[in-house]
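help with this.
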Amino acid sequence: MSEPFWKTKTLEAMTTPEWESLCDGCGKCCLSKLEEEDTGEIYWTSIGCRLFDAGNCRCSDYPGRLAKVPDCVKLTPHKVRTLPWLPSTCAYRLVANGDDLKWWHHLVSGSRETVHEAGISVRGKVTALETDMESVDDYFDHMLDEEP
């Protein structure tokens, strides 16, 4: 039996379908984050992007997200290696670091529900969408103590 693609290919060598399949569907990328200007420290919030479907932990318009949400970040191998806010559980980050996928990842478990069953996703943890925020100060009411 051959090794799975994420163990034999670099991020750069993956096909588009392989790359897209690495997303574990946790939804953490789609949460608003605050950055301390002086220190660069990242603070997580429980606020989802305006396109985030919190029930499914998916973007409601993935193909059109970059046009509709100007600050949406399209992940690339370079960004995966340099973005400080990618979650520690992120499959892209794990593979980039030479680590294996976790048991709950759908490519390992065979089910897209295990990420939710394991409590890794933000399903049930999103308290608002960014469209609900009237000012930047409103974000502070939704700050989390740690990465979700």
